[in-house]
Amino acid sequence: MKFAQEYQKHLAQDGYPPHWVASAISYRQLKKCIKKVQKELSELGLDGETLSEALRSQYVLSGCENGSVKGQFVPKLLVAVDEATGEPLDAKLAPETRTFLQELAVSQQLSDTRITDVSTDLSSRRSSSDDESSLESQEYRTIKMIEVPLSSDSEFFSMLQDELSGLTELQEQEKFQLNRQVLALSHAVAKITESSSSKSKHDLQQWRKIFELYLSGNIFFSTAEQDHGAHNYAKAHQRLQKFTKDLNSQVKMTVFKRKESQVFLQQFLSINLELLQNLKYQEMNFTAMNKILKKFDKRTSLSVQPNFPPTLSSTLLSQSTSKAICASLSTSLISLIPQIDDYLCPVCFSLAWRPVRLRCQHVFCIRCLIVLQREGQDHCPLCRGCVVIEADVDNLDDDMAKFMRKWFPGDVKAKQKENERATAIDLYGPAYDTKCCVM
Amino acid sequence: MALPKRIIKETERLMAEPVPGISAVPHEENLRYFDVTIDGPSSSPYEGGTFKLELFLPDDYPMTPPKVRFLTKIYHPNIDRLGRICLDVLKSNWSPALQIRTILLSIQALLGAPNPDDPLANDVAQRWKEDEKAAIQTAREWTAEHAKKA
Ligand SMILES: [Zn+2]
Ligand SMILES: [Zn+2]
To answer: Where is the active site (chain B) (predicted)?
Structure first.
């Protein structure tokens, strides 16, 4: 299937809201516009072949300096002519085209405003004396670039630019709208965390599991060392699917005890789905833009794609919406529910229960601290400060212990048992362990 | 004896999020024993080589450091003929908060930055100090000869 058709089909069938469809890059119109440019150029005798082979020319987009865009950008086709006579430097042109260009040069020379000097590339040749004799006299001329006025290419670029700014605006609206949803949801979930009813406590454990799965799912961004950074649509889609599947198998949704929890979960999932859809939409527009620029270059032999301002292409694919919304999700919503990974003992990798806070402020579980002291290790494993031996019962962090009992009751129980078993083995030897199991 | 939670977690993470240029796979019959490979860092004389190592976690790990040894022959001032490694974090500077992955990264870094002033292989260190160019050339040759990718 041709790209134009495929693109049209995706726009129609992928379930985008009408205003997204309306804002998408109009590939067909732009393609028609390219035809006009092609026609205009060939009427001037500057068809693709002449432009790419015979003519010394430059195609520039002014208005986009240093890769950023200032106002409207204006395309210019510049052709090399002799400074003195206005004659085109390239021989293979049709006679009418030569005359046309020369007349153009003369008239522009008179007004003297649209001439760009690019004689620098020849000045170095002029100074090397050895092979001067072998150079044709033409090489000594000073070159001027004159502008060939075209109208259809301006039309093409202003159309494209309008569409790109429309897309940027749409992304801003999306960001704003999604962020509002995230904040509203966070506000509602915060109410559950503040309540001390047993139903709320129960639901918080559910939320903790859900967010734990969500975080380890690395859906839109990855924290793994090998595939750092933002995911494309295909990957994010696959990750989100896996998350939903894991969610269904590992967290029984029916066991929420407060009705609104179920609603909140649906909202959370729908925010993620919308983000994903947004990613897909952006990728599709990015592809359309690249295809149309490529087509422009191919049809006209003006090479614009390499000069196309990177900021414009990157706003289209910056994933800035997913970045902003994921950041908002994690600071406003997910942070409401503490994750156990932030409260692990750095030595045994279990919950740091009971928490002992050393003078350097690093927290370890009491069991690991006892072992460190028994081994005569005075250095804090994290900062190497001499703070281990001096620690005593005053270093037990009761506030942290209370916090852990609230948020990780199951892990507290398990770790407590483990600690007691280890102490018993210390007292009675490894035999205790086997006896214990028999009982 | 059951495998401590810490070792299980470290192994899981090594498998799920491997470090680029490093692999560590536990033996099925002894989960404290790992087959390790480290790729020579780029723009070092070990570039292009893949080095095999063995790593063992003693009973009192992480109170004591893992035991690590090169199995592939390597010409390096801080690694001796038997593959033993002179690296502070494997000895006096070990901390129980360090992990298998951090240790292997340190070893990879040591390949990129040999330290002939703290040598284990004295003859290699001597040569490294006297004629660094020649020493690096030898290290390159050994890499090509012994550490070729399979
Ligand atoms: Zn611990
Ligand atoms: Zn510390």
So the answer is: 86
